[in-house]
Design a protein that fits this description.
Length: 336
């Protein structure tokens, strides 16, 4: 017969606690080996979460910057493409029209002006380009189209051109309609918001403007030229001899000036695109550094974990063997 004393009970209880602890440790290490991350982050950072909190805050901020920069880069690229299309409507149109006017043949001028209304319509449609449901040239009001349609613009200009006593007056009043602050273009033609519009943060405390609105002077000038050509094409003219040629000449000059203005606008947008791209590179590099630091603080070293796991496994096996031997102790066994 074997007897269990209070000392034996205490010893069995201690062994049981050790086995439970080793099982928990074995489970934790197995999980860390599988996931590659520490289960007990508090233990990993020695109870001081300051550095880890700073790193994770930096990552969240970094992701916000990167998302904004990526969206801004796509929008800026789409604006460049739209401005390319607008430039295509103006490409050589001014010089060619001016050459026809200089020849003095009205029939040839009429043929040259025939597509002017279509050019104006295409230019307006280009300025109303949308990306992801957002208008690209409407400034601070991307939910609205940038411009009224070509028909609305021409409806506003026809009475001005027809009522003018001569071509010079009509040209001056159309220029006023397009260029004057608070004039017809701003009240009827341009439907967007604040022209300064879209900005993007390049980093903490740094930002750049990448928005281009249809209210830019160069774009207004180009639209004025296209509108004058459309009016000359349809015969909405002052009742004076040579009015069509005079209006066509003014249209050609404004189209050429508008084309030059577009070059400046696209160059400015290109500078913004460069700053956005540089900022993306910096932000991505910062993110990589922060991710490495987070990994240093929270990732488990697979070699160290595997070593610890083998150590715990052997300890647990030893505890099972020792427990089995203790449970089999008796006077008879002892005297053998």
């Amino acid at each position: 017969m074997s007897y269990v004393t209070s000392g034996d009970a205490a010893r069995f209880s201690a062994f049981g606690q050790d086995v439970a602890r080793l099982k928990t440790e074995l489970q934790r290490l197995s999980s860390e080996l599988g996931s590659g991350r520490r289960e007990d982050i508090g233990l990993a950072v020695a109870g001081d979460f300051t550095a880890l909190s700073d790193v994770r805050r930096g990552l969240r901020l970094n992701e916000s910057f990167l998302l904004g920069l990526s969206n801004a880069a796509v929008a800026a690229g789409a604006r460049q493409s739209a401005l390319d299309r607008l430039a295509a409507e103006l490409d050589n149109a001014g010089p060619e029209l001016l050459a026809v006017v200089s020849n003095g043949r009205s029939s040839e001028l009429s043929r040259r002006l025939a597509d002017a209304p279509d050019r104006l319509e295409a230019a307006v449609a280009t300025m109303n380009t949308r990306l992801g449901g957002q208008s690209l040239f409407a400034g601070s009001a991307p939910d609205r189209p940038a411009l009224a349609d070509a028909a609305t613009i021409l409806d506003a200009l026809r009475p001005i051109a027809s009522a003018a006593p001569d071509a010079a007056t009509a040209i001056a009043e159309i220029d006023t309609w397009f260029q004057d602050p608070g004039g017809g273009f701003e009240t009827t033609g341009y439907l967007g918001g604040d022209p300064d519009g879209a900005t993007v943060y390049l980093g903490e405390g740094q930002r750049t403007r990448h928005g281009i609105s249809a209210a830019e002077t160069g774009i207004r000038t180009a639209l004025a030229g296209l509108a004058m050509a459309a009016l000359a094409a349809e015969g909405s003219l002052p009742p004076t001899e040579g009015a069509q040629a005079d209006l066509a000449r003014a249209a050609a000059e404004r189209m050429m000036n508008g084309e030059a203005g577009l070059v400046d606008i696209r160059a400015r947008l290109g500078v913004a695109e460069g700053r956005i791209e540089d900022a993306k590179v910096r932000v991505e590099a910062t993110r990589t550094g922060l991710q490495l630091e987070e990994a240093r603080l929270t990732d488990a070293d697979p070699f160290e974990v595997a070593t610890d796991l083998e150590t715990v496994r052997r300890q647990l096996e030893s505890m099972y063997v020792l427990t089995a031997r203790l449970s089999d102790l008796s006077l008879t066994t002892y005297l053998r």
